[in-house]
Amino acid sequence: MKPANHPPTERLLAYATGAVDVPMRLLVETHLSFCARCAREVGRLGEPGGTLLEAVPEEPVPEDLFGRIWAEAGRHEQPRRVEGLPLPPGLLAELPPPERWHWHPVPGGGCRMARLVKDVSGGSGLYLIQMNPGARFPRHAHLGVEEGLVVAGGAWDRGRFLEEGDWGSAPAGSRHEVIADAKEGCWTLVREERDAVRLSGWWGVLQRTASLLRH
Ligand SMILES: [Zn+2]
Questions:
Q1: Are both 109 and 193 inside the same structural domain?
Q2: Separation of 41 CA from ligand 1 center, angstroms?
Q3: With CB atoms 3.0 to 4.6 Å apart as the test, which of 62, 68, 97, 174 could cross-link to 18 if both were Cys?
Q4: Taking a C-beta distance cutoff of 8 angstroms, is the pair 153, 184 a contact?
Q5: pLDDT digits over 43-99, tens only?
Q6: 88 with 30: CB under 8 angstroms?
């Protein structure tokens, strides 16, 4: 199934020019593993003569760009389940081993989350969230931008049903809740622009887990 929701062009351009942190790079590359359309777009944006790239000549093009793009473009298979995790092998290869992830239950039941990567310089984090079938991730707000994509199953988020590969974002300060597909549940990869410990408005929800995430 082809994703219906894609990263904005500026995200793809930032990726193509290497102007992203590790959590964003991994998030974009995971989307590319689902989406030939965006993989082609990254290739086009990354071309030395690309029209958009000409508009930002101050951004150097990484030497390994083409190798990475074509490696991504050739990787369109659905992610294989590795130790029960529906993540692309290319992503798993860049993460700490799954047995070292610290899973934390989300109060309310039916959801758990683990921080996979923390960007030390920028303060962002990459999280994996697993929701059981029909589970509700309680309404919450965050200080920074939240971007993510569904890697397995599906979920309702602000009136839209997101499926495998679909990209979603929530602007800083917005509030939302997420409800997992009633049959398949949902696995979501999320980049929080500002670390979860600085989220606000998780009253009675993530306040307890916030301290657990600080490690
Ligand atoms: Zn796409």
A1: yes
A2: 9
A3: 62
A4: yes
A5: 888 776 555 444 444 445 555 554 565 565 555 444 444 568 888 888 888 889 888
A6: yes
